[in-house]
Structure formats: C-alpha cells, structure tokens
Backbone:
C-alpha cells in the first residue's frame, strides 16, 4: 500500500508541478492569493474533497475535507508571496516585473505538496477501506503571521488528532525546534503642528514622541531576557523639517520564546510609549497588527515524519539543478554558506553541497530544545493539536529565504523535485497515522504534557478583523 501511494504521486507529478509553477508565475501577497486558491481548490474538488470557503472571514482561507470518523488528520497549506521579490529563474538578479511580488519563501511549493499528499492519502484510504478523515487547510497570509491565528480564533482547527506541514529550506530534516512568540504592533502619536522656526512653542511634536519611545526601548533592551528580540521601523516621521509633526508612527515586533514573556515585554514597551507621550504632551494610539504563539513540536509525530522521509529517500537532483545551484551560491556574500553550515553544526560533505542530498535526524538550531528567533503562525495550530513539520532542500547551501536567489530556486527543478519528495513523505505519514491508533494516542499524550492541558487563548483581540486584501 505504501508503494501504491508513492506510485500514485509519481503519476500526479506532471499535474502538481504544473500547478506549482503556475502559482509561482502568478504570485500574490497575503489575503489576496485568489489565483493560487482557485487552482488548488479546483484540484481538491475534482479529487472528491468537500470544500468550505471562505472561512474565518478571509476570502482566501478554506477547508477541504474527505472521509469520516477518527482519526482526523490535518495538513496545512500556504501560498502567499512576498512583495518586491519578482525574479526569473536566473543566476543573476533579474525581476519578471519591477516591484512585483515573488515566492521568496517557496509557498508555491508548500501548499501544492500538501494538496498532493491529501489527495494521495485519500485515494489509498478509499481503495483499501481505511477509516478516518483528511482535512487540508488553505491558510492565507503566513508571511504576516495572521492567517492561521484568525482561523484558530474561530475554532477552525478544533477536533484534529494530528497536524502535518513543512517549509522549504536547505536541510532535509524534521523541525524539532520551537519558534518565538510574537506581537506586531504600531504606536501612533498625535500632537500639534506649528511652524518649526517662528512658533515651535505652539507645536507638540509627535516625532519627538516616537524618538523618545525608541530611545527608551533601547534602554529597555538591557533589562529583558537575552532571548527576546525588539525591532522596529519608523513608518511616518513628518512631512517637512519646518513643520512640527502632528503625526508620527513607529512599528514594533516583540519576540520571545514564550507567549507570557512577549506579553510582559509588550506591556513594558507600552509603558515607555506612554511616558514619551506624557513628556511630549501628545496622545498615544496602539494598534495590534498581528500576534502568534510559540511553536510546540511533537516528537511522536516528528519521528513518524522522519521514518517516511527516509522511506522515500532524499530528492534526486539533475545536473541542470546542481549547476543552477552552484551559480546561485556563487552570487552570495562571502561566508554565507559557511555560516549556514555553522548554524546546522555540520560539514558540507555530511549534507551535500550545493544541494542537500541527505536526510538528517536532527540538525543544529532545528534540534529539540532549541528556540529559533523567528516566528510562524503554525505555532498557534500547535497550541491546539499535536503538530509536526519537516524542512526540505528547495535552495542551495547558504541561500536565505526572502531573497531573489530563493525565488529563482523555488521556480526551478530544484524546488519541484523536493516538492514531490515532501508530498510523498507527508502522504505516507498520514497513512501511518490512519492505521496506527497507538501513535495517535502517544502524540496526544505528549501534547497534553507539553501544553500543560491549557486551553488555547487567541493572542489577538476579539475586535481585530482580517484585512479584505493586501
């Protein structure tokens, strides 16, 4: 049966690859991913899935379900692109369109691999009379850490026994590390405008409030935990030097390993801003943009994923893929590949260079017990149900996500071959979970232990609504 599922996906390969490339050629940013959603929903409906759309107040969020009864296994899919990363499949920076978006995080591959896995698992369950329910979740706007959080708040992920997902990277392994919880928020100050030369006394500078806030936050950094991150940009600072700014705004991210730590640091940042408003006689407006929980990896599910990855075997790259990878790697700043290997705690010979040709049990900062200083809204799903994810080689050694080199990789044979490896690995794991009830029970028991049995609390306020488009 497991051979059948691999064969089924081999037969689907031309179709899945064509959809992934089509989405890559039609990139859309978060909450506007209508083209990608149309392609994958059409495929899921043709395969016999019942699709519910939209969900959680988002046009590009949906649920596709097939089967009945337990266990209920979920697969997460994403498809949003990043603004300003348009790029051709070239080893030099060459946008398809200046300023246009591009798939610099490989979400054109991420969602399609999950769709292929869901359809293949459904086919085997139907053919062999295996009970259970498969749910594929179309999740918008991962890049802004919003889609899954809105879905979680509306109980979309309730009732799941296990959840599987993945992310394009360089290493073929399981994502055993945690990730940081986050608050994204904007602080807007309102003052009084005046002529900065002839009547500065009549003005109340909102820009002064922003600058004082950031000075205070710089002092605050000395008095928060080492693992915390506070970063910002000034989104509006005024219109001209001779006008006292009546409006100014600064946008902060606060990250920390635990949700409770984020909330404590967030409140301290707000206190700094309140003090700045008092000093400048301005008023403060706080806007929550996004927030998420830390990721809780599930080791029982991770080991199931790892077994499936090893059964499939690592992606096999063609000579053209390797040549492109070498050329892309040559465009990186000096030391990038070495820094990546140091992060993984491995030598290039152990993983493959310029492309990863091994499947590794645990790797450096992705290992159990580590906390990555990045954030993902998968964290909120992992607070509701046992969750595991893998990473796979979709780009050359040293190429970071969110770069033009990553866009070129995810639109090439490198990304497509890895996408099929992932689809097979996910499908085999779904099948194992459907047939191995003790594994499902073990994953649930571990989840209850790690989460402490705490109910999920959305990190965003009830009145925060998803944007209609972006």
Residues:
């Amino acid at each position: 049966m497991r051979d059948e599922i691999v064969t089924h996906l081999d037969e689907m390969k031309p179709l899945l690859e064509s959809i992934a490339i089509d989405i890559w050629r039609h990139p859309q940013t978060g909450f506007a991913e209508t083209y990608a959603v149309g392609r994958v929903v059409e495929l899921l409906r043709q395969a016999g899935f019942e699709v519910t759309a939209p969900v959680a107040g988002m046009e590009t969020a949906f649920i596709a379900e097939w089967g009945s009864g337990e266990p209920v296994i979920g697969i997460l899919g994403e498809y949003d692109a990043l603004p300003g990363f348009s790029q051709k499949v070239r080893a030099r920076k060459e946008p398809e369109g200046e300023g246009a978006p591009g798939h610099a995080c490989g979400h054109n591959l991420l969602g399609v691999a999950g769709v292929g896995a869901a359809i293949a698992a459904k086919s085997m369950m139907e053919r062999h009379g295996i009970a259970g329910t498969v749910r594929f979740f179309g999740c918008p706007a991962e890049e802004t850490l919003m889609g899954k959080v809105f879905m979680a708040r509306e109980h979309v992920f309730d009732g799941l026994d296990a959840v599987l997902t993945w992310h394009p990277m360089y290493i073929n392994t399981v994502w055993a590390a945690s990730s940081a919880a986050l608050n994204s928020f904007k602080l807007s100050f309102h003052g009084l405008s005046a002529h900065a030369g002839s009547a500065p006394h009549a003005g109340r500078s909102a820009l002064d409030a922003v600058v004082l806030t950031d000075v205070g936050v710089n002092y605050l950094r000395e008095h928060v935990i080492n693992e915390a991150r506070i970063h910002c940009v000034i989104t509006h600072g005024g219109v001209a030097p001779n006008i006292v700014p009546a409006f100014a705004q600064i946008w902060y991210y606060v990250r920390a390993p635990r949700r409770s730590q984020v909330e404590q640091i967030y409140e301290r940042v707000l206190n700094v801003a309140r003090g700045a408003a008092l000093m400048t006689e301005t008023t403060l407006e706080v806007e929550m943009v996004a927030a998420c929980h830390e990721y809780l990896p599930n080791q029982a599910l991770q080991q199931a994923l790892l077994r499936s990855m090893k059964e499939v075997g690592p992606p096999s790259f063609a000579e053209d893929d390797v040549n492109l990878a070498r050329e892309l790697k040559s465009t990186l700043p000096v030391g990038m590949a070495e820094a990546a290997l140091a992060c993984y705690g491995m030598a290039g010979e152990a993983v493959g260079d310029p492309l990863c040709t091994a499947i590794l049990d645990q790797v450096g900062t992705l290992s159990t017990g580590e906390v990555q200083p990045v954030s993902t809204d998968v964290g909120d799903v992992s607070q509701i149900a046992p969750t595991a994810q893998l990473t796979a080689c979709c780009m050359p050694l040293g190429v970071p996500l969110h770069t033009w080199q990553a866009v070129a990789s995810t639109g090439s044979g490198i990304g497509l071959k890895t996408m099929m490896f992932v689809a097979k690995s996910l499908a085999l794991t779904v099948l194992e979970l459907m047939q191995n009830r003790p594994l499902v029970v073990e994953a649930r028991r571990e989840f209850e232990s790690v989460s402490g049995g705490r109910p999920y609390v959305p990190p965003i306020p009830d009145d925060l609504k998803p944007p209609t488009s972006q």
Q: What stands out?
A: The chain has two domains: 2-178+294-451, 181-292.
